[in-house]
Amino acid sequence: MLYDIPMNTISRFNSLDEVGGQNQASQRGHPVSRLLGTRSIVLVGLMGAGKSTVGRRLAQALKLPFRDADHEIEAAAGMTIPEIFAIHGEEHFRDGERRVIARLLQDGPIVLATGGGAFMNEETRRRIAEHGISLWLKADLDILMRRVRKRATRPLLQNPDPEGTMRRLMELRYPVYATADITIDSHEAPHDRVVADAVKALAEWLAREKQGSAEA
């Protein structure tokens, strides 16, 4: 059945090996990682925001495994995302996306990059809130369009007006992305700068959380 391959059989797409196990990595790694417990850092945002690229580098900085939900979906389905859209339709893809992300969130702590529509699902948002910290990579339209034009395989942009489609997606999705725990600007700067901003924001968010727990 699509998407139901056990997670330990589809890790060939991961950019970081879980050397020593996740718990050991989080215990001996970056201070941010030690504060996560079993929670994951979940990157959300539109296509072109840099979730996969920033996610890999963030995982390296925090000494955590990295997972790309789109890659895991493709591995589980045995076909590319454009093929899934073409053969089975978007609704089928979204159902598989929801189930794959639910499985990945059980594997924390990790850094998880999600597809642009994943956070729009109410159940997925609830699961992320329970098992992770959501981080929105926010980007302006011109930046997103420059990036997505480099790849001609985006199913939602296969139409005569991709920029108009992107504008409509921003109008629909940005209010939902804005409910994420943390927002980081994905601007035209070196990825390491965006990663540094993310690490700083995560440290501040976790510090506030820890202080709030102490005062409760």
From TrEMBL:
Binding-site list for ATP: G48, A49, G50, K51, S52, T53, R154
Binding site for substrate: D70, R94, G116, R173
GO molecular function: ATP binding; magnesium ion binding; shikimate kinase activity
One Pfam family this sequence matches: SKI
Keywords from the named record: Amino-acid biosynthesis, Aromatic amino acid biosynthesis, ATP-binding, Cytoplasm, Kinase, Magnesium, Metal-binding, Nucleotide-binding, Transferase
Catalytic activity from the UniProt record: shikimate + ATP = 3-phosphoshikimate + ADP + H(+)
SUPFAM superfamilies registered for this protein in UniProt: P-loop containing nucleoside triphosphate hydrolases (SSF52540)
Main location: cytoplasm
InterPro entries in the record: P-loop_NTPase, Shikimate/glucono_kinase, Shikimate_kinase/TSH1, Shikimate_kinase_CS
Family: Belongs to the shikimate kinase family.
Reported function: Catalyzes the specific phosphorylation of the 3-hydroxyl group of shikimic acid using ATP as a cosubstrate.
Quaternary structure annotation from Swiss-Prot or TrEMBL: Monomer.
Protein name: Shikimate kinase
Lineage per the UniProt record: Bacteria, Pseudomonadati, Pseudomonadota, Alphaproteobacteria, Hyphomicrobiales
Gene name in the database record: aroK
